Amino acid sequence: MKKSPLSTAGEKLTSWDDITSYNNFYEFGPYKEDPKEQAWRLKPRPWTITVEGYAAKKGTFGFDEFIQPYALEERVYRMRCVEAWSMVIPWVGIPLKDIIATYQPTSQAKYVEFVTAFNPAQMPGESTRMLPWPYVEGLRMDEAMNPLAILAVGLYEETLPNQDGAPIRLVVPWKYGFKGVKSIAKIRFVDYQPKNTWQVMTPNEYGFYANVNPNLDHPRWSQATERRIGTFFRQKTLPFNGYADQVASLYAGMDPKKLY
Amino acid sequence: MKPFVILKRIIFAAALIPAAALLVDAFRGELTANPIDYITDTTGDWAIRFLVITLCVTPIRRLTGWNRVIQLRRMLGLFCFFYATLHFLTWSVLDWFFDFRQMGEDIVKRPFITLGMATFLMLLALAVTSTKGSIRRLGRRWTQLHRLIYLAAVTALFHFWLARKTVVPQFQLMLVAAILLLGFRAWWTLRTRVHPRTSAAH
What we know:
The complex is a heterodimer. Chain A is an alpha+beta fold. Chain A is built from seven helices and 13 strands.
């Protein structure tokens, strides 16, 4: 597998066991251990991904057909959860910008909206009213085209386990983990800012941008520090989760207080 | 041994099971990928459960007329305090490792920490005045002081609710239980006011 120069170096990887047993994936329940216990219900093959909206190429594609044009590469990224814990994960994925290029969005496409599969029979959390379903996330087009953004299909050189968002999920390492929408069924090129699920749920706590920012606290807890899974003491959280050099320019001139 | 003493000992032993289970999990390395959060959540859950269980004692006594059940109340209340203390120590020692500046800031700035701290201080006041000597010394004021348990139930539930991103089933269960148990007391008080003779012995 191709090792990407964009991988984060010098960090100890979080173990496979921790990455696959400690998950926020409310489609399988509200507790961290629920996804590992419940995710066997999900059938990640056969799987289809529908591309819609302002794009020259649209349609519904089988998973293999969808990823076939691209070479998979390994990307090691920090993952910072909004709950103040973090991991270092060796993803296997495809640059999102390459996928977007395939579908040729028109100039009317200002944002990309991602929607998780809606299938309560396989995702029992979707038959509760814990969150409005299906889960929705989005990126501004220039964020989506940033080289760091990937769609992941694996980790540790293995196929992505169900509890981590099989068969395909978003990874945007400079944002809080909830932006990483899992088990994607729809990708839409739209002219409006998508209403992402956590923003709809609690708008004063979770916004659209959700950039990691140690100086902007969550209304209920501090974001200044984080606990790296597998270590004891808290460590300082970095602006943009340590990826400021690659992404800070996306937000030039914007009020950082509004980028939660 | 008298059956009631046996019952009391069984409850005592059972109430220690959650703490023992945490120890066993710790030795087997099964405290999840985030042991500190897991211990915090588990001890917090059990503190609230024992608070609710303690609030069950008086309604059971009034509805069944089984007066001796009241002798379990202090022990159950102290188990609530025991798990609340473990919860507090997990936060102050394991989570923040005596970073008093950060803890102080959180107590002032974060309503859910403020409420947790207030709840713990109330439970502490109730625990230290739970001895026979205190009951004797404080007399009527002891009864008044120990009504703090109702306020502690409310602040504990608010704390639980604010600590989570969504409403979890465990919270819903505890909320319904607390509403029923506090509602029972309101109803009972109203009833004894309307018919003072029929329930003079409260």
